[in-house]
């Protein structure tokens, strides 16, 4: 019984193991084998007939003809020399590999990328500026938004990778991506907790340090009235006004600026009638446009 045997070597006559060999013909089913560590292979006991033996290594395929004659007792030897030829990278190969074979993946990534670009770059960032980022609330909001969009995009990409990709290292790549996503979620949670926690503290502190007018004192000397007092709480600076009723007895103060909330003004007495009394009203707004009002008891301007 004759066999079909041979060896597979490279251009330097070095044996090539693990080369696929295909035997077709003789009226039987195709046979497949691999070359051994010394490059040898063997198809045992093929029937009488004509055959085609193919050696396949990557994209390099070599075909040779072989024959088993009736009554043949010696092996038919078919040797292969695999000469690797450099392959040119064609645009059609790139198209088939990265578009046709994975069109769904890249289409989905394109959609995610466009949403990210439009929402973040087109929709929000043009409204920001370095001057606005000096504001703590604006900076915190921008950072929270950026990390949130990045985290959601990362989750979508991981979901797509788990569904549409494969390979021996899929588990490693997915595990690494999951660790990165977990890290982003932790950062996002920390930022959100810090942001809203700080906001609650700010509101609480604002409630405790409310806007108020401390004791205001008046003293009359001759035809003048000295007003002194203090505005506390709220947000500096302050703008205030002092008026008196009935009108026409003393002068008034309008839109007076105070950086530290101190009130100290001198009003002139216009009516010299003895025993005249007036009621003073101090009102104004702080830096956050919150209003305050204080009214005195009747005060005699002319003793």
From TrEMBL:
Nucleotidyltransferase is among the record's keywords: no
Record-linked SUPFAM superfamilies: Carboxypeptidase regulatory domain-like
InterPro entries assigned: CarboxyPept-like_regulatory
Keyword Transmembrane: yes
Keywords tagged on the record: Membrane, Transmembrane, Transmembrane helix
Chain ranges passing through the membrane: 106-125, 145-164, 176-196
Protein name as it appears in the record: Carboxypeptidase regulatory-like domain-containing protein
Organism of this sequence: Fibrisoma limi BUZ 3
């Amino acid at each position: 019984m004759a066999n079909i045997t041979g060896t597979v070597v490279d251009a330097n006559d070095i044996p090539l193991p693990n080369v696929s060999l295909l035997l077709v013909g003789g009226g039987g089913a195709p046979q497949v084998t691999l070359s051994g560590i010394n490059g040898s292979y063997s198809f045992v006991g093929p029937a009488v007939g004509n055959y085609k033996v193919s050696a396949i290594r990557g994209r390099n395929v070599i075909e040779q003809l072989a024959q088993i004659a009736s009554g043949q007792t010696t092996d038919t030897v078919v040797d292969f020399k695999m000469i690797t030829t450099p392959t040119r990278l064609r645009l059609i190969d790139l198209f088939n590999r990265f578009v046709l074979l994975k069109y769904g993946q890249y289409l989905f990534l394109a959609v995610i990328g466009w949403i990210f670009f439009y929402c973040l770059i087109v929709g929000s960032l043009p409204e920001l500026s370095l001057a606005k980022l000096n504001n703590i609330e604006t900076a915190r909001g921008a950072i929270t938004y950026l990390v949130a969009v990045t985290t959601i995009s990362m989750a979508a990409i991981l979901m797509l990778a788990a569904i549409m990709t494969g390979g021996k290292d899929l588990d490693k790549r997915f595990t690494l991506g999951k660790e990165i996503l977990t890290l982003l979620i932790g950062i996002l949670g920390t930022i959100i907790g810090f942001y809203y926690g700080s906001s609650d503290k700010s509101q609480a502190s604002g409630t405790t340090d409310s806007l108020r007018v401390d004791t205001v004192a008046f003293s009359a000397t001759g035809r003048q009235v000295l007003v002194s007092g203090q505005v506390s709480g709220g947000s500096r600076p302050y703008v205030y006004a002092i008026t008196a009723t009935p009108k026409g007895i003393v002068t008034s103060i309008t839109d007076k600026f105070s950086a530290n909330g101190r009130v100290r003004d001198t009003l002139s007495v216009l009516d010299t009638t003895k025993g005249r009394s007036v009621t003073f009203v101090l009102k104004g707004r702080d830096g956050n446009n919150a209003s305050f009002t204080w009214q005195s008891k009747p005060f005699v301007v002319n003793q």
